[in-house]
Amino acid sequence: MLEALKREDKARDELQALNIRVSTDVLQARERLESIRREVDVLQQDVLPGAKSAYDAATVGFENGKFNFLEVLDAQRTYFAAKSQYLKALAEAHRTAADIDRVLGESGANATQPANKE
Against a cut of 0.90, is the pTM above it? Predict the structure, then answer.
């Protein structure tokens, strides 16, 4: 009987430690998800429109002889780099949300969804 009680106490302690570790991991993942969501929002609302506008202006300026081709390529490279950064951040947001859902055992309507407006 005493041995059974000791095993029960040990199991209870292990369960409590596991619950604390899972709670900490989920909290950290949620904080990371919020950070990534903010990055996605900034890229989507500020960086991408500005880079696209600069690229479009450089293209029109080149067609009108105001810019050289290297300036157009530089604007294009900047726009594509911003787009790539946005897509990487969005993918990371989805991975992080999936990790949280996996740990919590959620799926479907109750699942954590990253911000995706594009």
Answer: no
